[in-house]
């Protein structure tokens, strides 16, 4: 497989997978009825932000795959699985506590990826920084929604 074919495969997997899961687990009426914190962003912001982040995630994954970096690949796959589990946990099963556990583990995997790539593949580490910031914000949002709507 050529490098460009592999990059395309990573893009299709991550962007296609992420958008498909997002489509299958649209927020719906349950989410609309939740008490939201004051910093809750408008719903329209999520799709464009996640699309950009998924492109960055795919490129970073392709770069560590292309360089055959084992530990970064393990963290990369772990974060992708956790990323793809969050929406079904939160929106599909409507389990905000479970989703919070998933997103905290996702944060750990993202930090792990950045840590193990920082010296060997700095570009990939930097590609994950916006992702880290957004998921940290999403973790705060998830925790706030869970707290505001507990019981």
TrEMBL record:
Is-annotated flag, keyword Membrane? Answer: yes
Q: Which Gene3D superfamilies match?
A: TspO/MBR protein
UniProt membrane topology term:
Multi-pass membrane protein
Q: Name one GO molecular function term.
A: kinase activity
Q: Which GO terms describe its biological process?
A: tetrapyrrole metabolic process
Keyword annotations for this protein, in alphabetical order, are: Kinase, Membrane, Transferase, Transmembrane, Transmembrane helix
Q: Where are the transmembrane segments?
A: 44-63, 75-93, 99-118, 125-148
Against CDD domains, the record matches this protein to: TSPO_MBR
- UniProt record similarity statement: Belongs to the TspO/BZRP family.
Put simply, this protein is called: Sensor histidine kinase
What is the source species? Phyllobacterium sophorae
